[in-house]
Every structure is written in C-alpha cells, then in structure tokens.
Write a structure and sequence with these properties.
The complex is a heterodimer. Chain A is mainly alpha-helical. Chain A has a single domain, classed as ABC transporter involved in vitamin B12 uptake, BtuC (Orthogonal Bundle). Chain A has 15 helices and two strands. Chain B is an all-alpha fold. Chain B has a domain of about 210 residues. In chain B, helix 4 crosses helix 10. The chains are: A mainly alpha, B mainly alpha. At the A-B interface, helix 6, helix 12 and helix 14 of A face helix 7, helix 13 and helix 15 of B.
Chain lengths: ~350, ~325
C-alpha cells in the first residue's frame, strides 16, 4: 500500500479506474454482440475517437485555466467546410497546404475567442456561447447552404481515413488515430515537463496567485484558446477527410461531446487539475459506448442517457472518492516525512 | 442615485436599445404595431422567455442550469409516451410535471447536498434527460392529441392573449415579488455574492439551492408542455439547444454570470430587445441564422463594452493623478 501511495497519485488512480471501466465495457459488449472482437469494430471506434480526442486535447488546456470553450463544434464545422470548399476548387493543392489552411483558420477563430476572454475580460462562457452562434452563422452565410460533396474532393483526401500507419497482428492502426495519439503524447509530455505548459495548471489552481508571482496570466489564457482553436482546425480537416460530404450543420453539438470527454476523463471543470491523457481516455470511453450501442441496434437510443450518467458518476467520484483518497495520501505523506526526519537511517531502508 | 449614475445603468442602455429597435421596426414595416404581430412576437419564443425568468434566479444565486431545454423535451416526451399508452391527457400532463420535479431534485441533490459544480451536473442532465426522452419516443413523432390540448397552445383564450402569454406575465410578477420583495430573494443575492458568508450566517443554503433547481425544472417542464401544445406534435429532439437562447437572454439583461448581481427588470428588457430584434430582422427578410449571429454578437458586446469603458476610465484617472 505504501509503495502504491509513493508511486501513484490519486489522479492516476482515477485514470486507471477509467481504463478498467473501458476494458469492462469492451468485455460486456463483446459478450452481447456477435463478432465484436474484429478489426472492423476497432477501426470504427478509433476513427470516431480520433477527431474527438484532438479537440479534447485543446479543450483540456482551456479547462485547466478555469475557462471553457463551447465554440469548438462551430470551429470544426467552419474549418471542415472552408477547407473542403478550397480543395474542391483547387484540386492540385498539396495536402500539407490544406492541413495548414485548416489549422490557420482554427487558430484565427481561437485567437478571437482568446483575445476577448484574456484581454477583453469577458467570461469565457459568454464569449464562446456567442461565438458558437456567430461562427455557425458566418458558415451558413458563406456557404449559401450548399454542401461540399464527396465527388468534388481530391482522391488522396478520401483515401486518407483508410490509410494505415502500422499494422499489429490483425489490428490496423489508422494514420488519423496515430496522429491523435501522437498529439496526446506531445501535449502530455509538454504539460508534464515544460515550464511554459505547467503555467496552465498554475493559472487554474489559483489565478490571483499566478498573477502575483509574475506569470503572464492573460497570455496564458490567450494561448490556451489559440491552441484549442488550432487543434479544432486540425480536427476540422480530419472531419472533412472522414465524412467527405460536409453540410453547414457539420459537427453541430460536438462541443458537448468534447466537454463530456474532458469531464469523464477527470479534468476538473474548475481548472487546475486533470491531464491530456485522461481526456483521451474519456474520449475513448464515449467512442466505445457510441459505436457499440449502435451495433446493439435497439439500444442506440440509450446512448445519451448512459453518457449523462457517466458524466455524473465521473464528477461525483471526483468529489467524493478522490477527496478521500487525497486525504489518505496526504496523511501518509506526513507520516513519511515525520519518520524520515526522526530517523534518517530507517528511511533509507 | 444621481442622474449620471442613473443614465449609465445597464437597464437604461437596454431601454434605449429597445426604443431604437422598435423605432426602426415601426419605420420599416407598417405591420409591426398591429396586435397580431405583437402577440405573435411573444408567442414565437414564449417557452424560452418563461424559462428565462427562473434562470435569472439561478444565475443570480451563482449557479447555472444547462439542463432546462432537455427537461422541456423530456416533459413533452413523457406526456406523448403516456398518452400513446392510453393514459388520459390530464394525467399525462401531471405526470410530466412530476418528472420535471424529479429531474430538478436530481440536479439539486448533486449540486446542493453533494457539492458538485452545477455546470457539470446540469451538463450531465442536458445529455442524460435528453437521452431518456430519446428512449421513450425513439425516432417517432407523436401527435393526435385532444383538441383542447392543441387549442391551449394555439388559440387566444384571454382576449387576444394565449394562455402561455398569461402564464408568462403572471410568472414575471411572481418572480419579481420573490426576487425583489421577499426574504427568499435576498437570500438568493446573498448566496450569489458570498456563499460561505451566507452559510456562516445561518442561511439554509442547501435548501434554497434545491428549491431553485426543482422550481427551474418544473417550470421548464411546464414550458415544454406549452411548446408541445403549440406545435401539436412531439419529437425526441424538441427544444434542443434552447438553453443557449435562454442563458443569452438572462446575461444580456445585465445578470452577472458569477452571481450576486442583476435584476428582473433588466431581464424583462433584454427579452423585449431580443424578441423585437428577431421580429424586426424577420420582417426585413433576414434569415434565422443571421439573427442568431447578431444576438451572439450582442451578448459578447454587452459585457465587452462596459469592460472596455471601465478600463479606459481607470487609465484616464491614472493619468490625471
């Protein structure tokens, strides 16, 4: 137990239990659905998880700073449509340019939100509630309610979702899922070890203290929104590649799924705690539920009810169980410190 | 309060906005001032503005209820489902209101007694209650209600007014008295300003919060039933996304998202501004999506402009001294 307490933090207990919950869900669905354990199921889940995960990484950064970004669904929709329209008009456009267009557009939209929140001092829920409507309205006006259709897009884009990154045994890891995992790793390492990124946690834990010790509070919040926008732009490109046909309603309501993934993944809605890796687990949990319930046919309608319950459980376990765990951990820490200072020789053993 | 402070109040600004918008509307369209148009103007978003009244109290108390639109949908789906099972319509309506009460108890229990953030609890409610509604009606549209039920939503009952409008007016009066003239209303402000202080001065904060959440969900359920009566048909995605419009109305009315300040007069004015703006843009052939964008921009500006004014003001003062 002591060994456990020394090597695992309470937050990690929670991520581990989410991981166990995912395994349990897969086992339960596996016993209920014939032919569940196939590479097809795996591909279906991973490709739906990939997009949500990329957006959830950005959302995590924003939530860590005690803010919320409700505009991500509209940003994904706008970038998917705009990039799709550009690709349909210029077939010769190199893939890299298309990705950069999507990310740049997302970046600009995120920067608008960030500037209003950080420098205009408008609460993030108001700003992003407004820009959720504004971005969607701009998209509908810009598009004239036309649809980007699959046959107007270049071939490489439509083949992208089926592109394999690596094949392990029977399972194909698709390039888009690999990209999502890569982004999670990048940001997980960044937020764990980089000074700049630890500032997100500092801001969320205590904004006043962070500002008093000289952190650039406004710039931190601004950059969280810019990163969220940019990642949403990238997700917009992935959305375009996955679905091909993009209407003006694309990705409407995605912000709820993303916030749900982040909350289920253990990121505190009041900022300061949670990890990018947890958010990915949350996305995987939701993706597994969604795709598996879909296979159970009648139960498709049960998806939202279960998801709501899951969010409630995640938040409740955070408040009730995790606080207990933290107290136990803190007590043993104190004991260890007391023992270490009393007899250094014994502590070495 | 001197004249300058009175002029700079948020409500005055809203009133000025309302006068300008109404003036433009009168100049633009001869049909604007007709009784039919005015009734229609309220009738088109009557359910949202009923819910906005109780949302005002919740936000002033420092909480938020994102689940209202889902409760609206759930209530109407419960009625539709029970009606289809052969229940008499009045009992189906009562059952729907009761379900609304249960939803409120769930929200209130987790928020007030367990102490979870209401943003997260009601987000779970937003997804979960909608999910229950989906389980009940799946992807059908259920209609064919008794005539009196449809008339309730569609026919004027009191002179030119429909029953929904009368309910709204009555509820506005009740909420105004509760919030501004009763002890409970003062508690709501105190809790929004400083919850800890309220608790240590012996306010039963948990009970007040629970009461607010139950009231919110029951009123949302009532609004959902009125919506069902107006449309005459119920689907699983009824009232989806209404929570954004409701919260926009409250925040535009000068209620602080952090709780503790704002009043019902401001919310009443902001409701009038939004309805007239939408109506005017509708008369001018501007589509619904552009209308939503304009209101989104208005929401952001309503907080940004006073903030900017304050920042410039303090900078100016700093230079003088």
């Amino acid at each position: 137990m002591k060994w456990l307490q020394r090597h695992i933090r309470p937050e990690q207990v929670r991520e581990l239990s989410l991981l166990l919950l995912i395994v349990a869900a897969v086992l339960i669905f596996g016993s209920m659905i014939d032919g569940y354990y196939t590479s097809r199921t795996f591909n279906r889940i991973t490709s739906s998880v990939a997009i949500i995960t990329v957006v959830a990484v950005g959302q995590t950064l924003v939530v860590l700073t005690r803010n919320i970004d409700l505009a991500v669904g509209s940003i994904v929709g706008c970038t998917a449509y705009f990039t799709g329209a550009q690709l349909a008009a210029h077939h010769g456009m190199p893939p890299v340019v298309a990705v950069l267009i999507a990310m740049a557009l997302g970046c600009v939209m995120g920067a608008i939100n960030g500037a209003l929140v950080a420098y205009g001092r408008v609460p993030s829920i108001i700003v992003t509630l407004g820009s959720l409507a504004i971005f969607r309205g701009i998209l509908i006006d810009y598009s004239g309610a036309r649809t980007v259709t699959t046959d107007s897009l270049p071939k490489w884009l439509l083949e992208l979702p089926r592109l394999n990154f690596v094949t392990i045994g029977d399972l194909d890891i698709r390039a888009m899922f690999a990209l999502a995992v890569g982004i999670v790793l990048l940001f997980q390492i960044g937020t764990s070890f980089l000074n700049v990124a630890r500032q997100f946690y500092a801001m969320g834990s205590n904004p006043d203290a962070a500002e008093l010790i000289g952190m650039p509070a406004r710039r931190i919040v601004f950059s969280a929104f810019v990163l969220s926008g940019t990642l949403s732009g990238l997700a917009g490109f992935m959305f375009l590649a996955r679905f091909g046909s993009i209407t003006v309603e694309a990705a409407r309501g995605m912000e709820l799924q993303v916030v749900a993934a982040v909350v289920v993944g253990g990121v505190n809605i009041f900022g300061g705690s949670g990890t990018v890796f947890g958010a990915m687990l949350g996305a995987i949990m939701i993706g597994t539920l969604e795709q598996s319930l879909f296979r159970l046919q009648i139960s498709e309608f049960w998806r939202d009810a279960i998801l709501g319950l899951l969010i409630l459980l995640a938040v409740a376990s955070d408040a009730v169980i995790l606080n207990r765990l933290r107290a136990i951990w803190a007590r043993t820490d104190l004991k260890l410190v007391a023992r270490d200072s009393a007899s250094p020789a014994e502590a070495k053993r | 309060m001197n004249i300058r402070a009175r002029l700079l109040r948020w409500e005055t600004l809203l009133l000025a906005m309302l006068v300008v918008i109404a003036g433009l509307n009168i100049a633009y369209s001869p049909f604007y001032l007709g009784v039919g148009n005015i009734v229609n103007l309220f009738q088109l978003s009557i359910e949202k503005i009923i819910v906005a009244l109780i949302m005002t109290l919740i936000i002033i108390c420092g909480e938020i209820d994102l689940s209202v639109a889902s409760v609206m949908g759930l209530a109407s789906c419960v009625t539709a489902w029970l009606f289809q099972m052969g229940w008499p319509m009045p009992w189906a309506l009562v059952a729907a209101l009761a379900v609304g009460g249960v939803a409120g108890l769930i929200n209130g229990f987790w928020t007030a007694y367990v102490g979870l953030p209401s943003l997260a609890v009601t987000l779970a409610g937003l997804i979960g209650y909608r999910g229950v509604a989906r389980i009940l009606v799946e992807d059908r549209a259920i209609g064919g209600y008794p005539l009196w039920f449809n008339n309730l939503g569609q026919q004027p009952q009191f002179g030119p007014l429909t029953i929904s409008i009368v309910i709204f007016l009555a509820m506005f009066a009740i909420m105004a008295v509760v919030l501004h003239r009763s002890a409970l209303g003062r508690l709501v402000y105190v809790m929004g300003n400083n919850l800890q202080a309220a608790r240590y001065s012996g306010v039963r904060v948990r009970r007040v919060k629970l009461l607010l959440f139950v009231a919110s969900s029951m009123i949302a359920a009532l609004a959902g039933l009125l919506y069902a009566a107006r449309l005459g048909s119920v689907r699983g995605d009824m009232a989806q996304g209404f929570e954004l419009d409701v919260i926009t109305m409250v925040l535009l009315g000068g209620v602080s998202i952090f709780g503790g300040s704002g009043n019902l007069l401001g919310v009443g004015l902001s409701i009038l501004v939004i309805l007239n703006l939408r109506n005017g843009m509708g008369l001018a052939d501007i589509t619904g999506n552009t209308q939503t964008s304009v209101i989104g921009a208005l929401l952001i500006l309503s907080v940004l402009v006073p903030n900017m004014a304050r920042m410039i003001h303090t900078r100016w003062k700093g230079r003088e001294t």
